[in-house]
Amino acid sequence: MRIDRLDLERYGHFTDHHLDFSGTDVRLHIVHGANEAGKSTALAAICDLLFGVPERTRLGFRHGNNALRIGAVLRQPDGSLLEVKRRKGRQNTLLAADGSTALADGTLAPLLGGIDRAQFERLFGLDHARLRAGGEAMLAAGGDLARTLFQAGSGLTGIADIMAGLMADADRLGSPHKRQGSKPLYEALDAQQAASARMRNEATKAEAWEAAEKRLADARAALAGLQAELEKAQRAQSRLERIRRVRPLLARLEALAAERAELGEGPDLPAALAELWNGAAARLLQAERHRQQAAQQVETALATLADAGEAPRLPELATEIEALFQRAGSVEKARADLPRRQRELEMADERLALLAGRLGRHDAPDALEAAQPGRVLAARIREKAAAHGRLDGARDAASKREMLAARSLADLADGAGDVETAGDPLAAEAALAAALRLGEVETRLDEAAREADARTDELADALSRLGRFSGGAEALARLPLPDLAVIESWAGRLGDLAQQRAKLREAWDQAEADARKHAATLAELAADGEVPTLAAIEEARRLRDGAWQAIRRRMLEKLDVPDVEWSALGLGEAPAPRFEATIRTADQLADRRDREAQRVSRHARASSDLAEAEARLRALERDRNDLDQQGRTLENDWQSLWRESGLTPAEPALMAGWRRQVENVLALHRQGREAARKQAGLAEEAARCAGHLRDAMALAGLPAAAGETELSRLRARADAAVKACREQTDKAEKRRQEQARAERALRDAQREKAEATEALEAWAAGWAGDMAALGLPAGTSPAEAEAALTAWEDIGQELRARHDLVHRIDRLSSDIKQFQDDLTILVEKAAALDPALPLDAKAPDAANQLLMALDEARRRETRCGLLAEAAEKARRSDAEAAGELAEAQAERDDLKRLHGLGPADDVPALVALASRRRELQRAEQAALTELAQAGDGQSRAALAAEAGGLDPDGAAAELAAAGQEINRLQAALPQVSADLRDAERLLEELRQRSGIGEAAQEAAAAEAKAAQHAARWLRLRAAGLLLTQAVERYRNRNEHPLLRRASAILALMAASGGNPVTHLKVDYGDGDHPVLLGVRRDGSDAQVQDMSEGLRDQLFLALRIAAVEAHVTQATPLPFIADDLFITSDEPRTAAGLAALAELGASTQVVLFTHHRYVLDAAEGLEGVKVHRLGND
User: Fold this and answer.
1) For residue 706, is pLDDT > 70?
2) pTM of the model
């Protein structure tokens, strides 16, 4: 099966995108796309198409999951095409080509050859991750040949881990070959042996137990022998009945075979071929009519084209004519504008003469332009004019500042006097700041004293209320008491125990209530009569069958039936009524079981629930005993916890509260000591504060009052003294600073006045030279110079405007002349192409006439083109009609050739014969199906041989004899069954005796547990051995052909490098586990663990390609889908790998997905490669 086209209608980010994988000559399809181009999406679409879209898919992010749609055209092995579509859903997801008709779920099954999605992805899907996993698995297996071939051929990896896991699981259970007491198997066996020993020791009579066991074994053996004989007789009866059933079917098959032989062999033609044949004939007739019509249309179109004549040539000048016509408007505008511009030039000359007259000049425009002052000169004159004003103002301002500074110095000298300062303000302020940093220490000292008294009172009160202890706080701190967390944990443990007891009481009450309720339900059901349970029905049937067997033996077969058995069955002198009563009872119970299904169900449910409730009560009793023991243990441990302290503890919850009181007392004790230390420290701070304040007053020049100790008064006096000292010192400093500033201002003003005077003298010398350059006297003022510069600027502006006007007049005259010259040349060219045109280049509308002639020529040219196109279209229609005729003729020939028919064969007749042969084949298949059902799964040959070797009359006699033997054996069953039940009851009675019953149950349970462990060990060991044998069988079957092909592929892919691998070989070093090796060019071995990562990938790829080639020769070929297989390969090895994939493409379709450009480059030289691109390349 191949994919001819993949349709991504609404899938992932694709909408109506198609990938064409058709072409019988294409051996390798490469799908290339950049990252995010949709390569992975297209890869996933193939699996979703073949096997269905998963329930939870991430590819509906654009269209929504319900709108997902994939399609494809599949080429079947016989060459026919099947177009299908796949939607997301739970049923009817495979659709026909129309997108709405649902196809059966098994439509694709014949094409897939029984392979599911996981098998397809393992065998026919290979990406870089699986390639790398295969290489790592080979490395982990150490090149083991069997595992390597199995993993490469099946696509499964991790075989070694699976085998190791099976062995480990089996070893954890224990091995029958090595006794280990800690293993679960031997623990169960030891328990069984111990229980058996206890059962023997505790039994009241061991001999009675052994006799009961022997009797039970004998009864079971007798029953087994009787059942074996019955089974043998039933098998013989079944064989005879089977022969009776299959004889007519075998005869029918022989008749069908005879009719098929009479029809003979012939081509197997489909029934639809007749309809296809008739359709092809109709299309052939229609194609002949189309050909005649097309030939007539060609003849008419050619005649019309000849009448139209040749196309005009004037359109050859279309670009030049249209360009000239576009210029005509601007040229006409220029002709009208030229006189106006000439008048404007005359007016400009008049304005220039007026402006020059203001400066006393009467020069021509050219002379005025030469005499204009330069921009540098004008800027310098303006700068000097502005500088004159600044220098004059600076000199005046300096004179005023000189006068003010002299007056200020005089005032300061008049008011100066001696200012005396007493004390050092800086030192006094530092001493005061030191005192202030201590704050109101006297207030804090009072608070600390009150706090210390309060802590002492609180500690005494807490000690008096503590209880259980009569000592002081220091003694209490030394007492070894458990931590509060430990006490609380004990309280939690005892609380948990109490909760468990409460829950147990609730569970006990609930279990008792459930038991009473279920017992009441059973009593209620029993009060309404016997409940038709399965056990009651079986007992009734046992009595019925036993009564019938006894009656038949005594009444019909005249055999001896013991009176004890006859009486036990209640038959008496008139057995018939008793037997009928047993029949009615059994039948009534069976009927009532259906009618009273709800009552039976309630009885079964109540019985089960009662047993479950009683089991819960027994389990709860054990739990209650366990909790009582835990309580006693906890109480002893709790008392031991307090023994070192000498205290007798109460309950943990109370002791936790007492322990918190202790922590409170100790905390108060620590707080009291801290308060005392704080009070002493504050007293020291108060003394230091008083010393700082006395120092501040002394440094400020104020003596301290003798005997003054109150801090608040000392602080106020010291603050006033320091402020007064600072004010007097600041006044003296301010006067000194003002005098220094006045002296600096006087010196600065005198200096600035001299500098301004010197600068004015230098300005006057430069100004005279600039005025001479401007043509003005040296005494010209800055204002007069500015007026002259303004006049020259007006003249310059007018000269620039005149220059632009002259340039524009010259350009207009040039444009008019150039247009007239181009028009004359173009008229001459047009006349050369079409002499009949009436054109004059000197005419005012010559350009317009030329454009009108061009439009007329274009119309004629368009008509000629349409006629030529119509003629060509008619010729194409004639060619298409000829093609249709040839296709219709070839279609009939193809139908015969496709179905292997000759030119003279009668297709409808042959189709009818083929249909009859298929009907016979279906009838034969139906008979074979019926034969398989009637023949109990045996083959036709075996059934024919079985039926043919037996005489029909003798078979009837044997069948009757088998029935009699079965009746005899069934008649013996009740007695043997009764013996078995008696033996079981006897053994059960012995079990109920003191000790032996419990020991027997434990022995049976341990034996069952040991059997479970042994069975699981056998399953694990069997699974490991089966997997090992499967791997070895695969190696034995595929070693030589697979290795030969893989060796050739690897030699091709690994040919580059200094010492490449040239072929593969097998090393049988230890004889049990052959190893796969590579052989390099120099003959040295390359073990798998010594190969590079890339070489291992290429080896696994070679093995996979060889395995796929081998698979498709034995099963349905499926597309091989690969994704980025050459990440670890260089360019030469990539090219070789692509060649190997192309060789695989001869056996099955190969599609390679990649986003690497170098893969496309490597594929350029290969034949049979087709590249598909996703997104922008």
Assistant:
1) no
2) 0.34
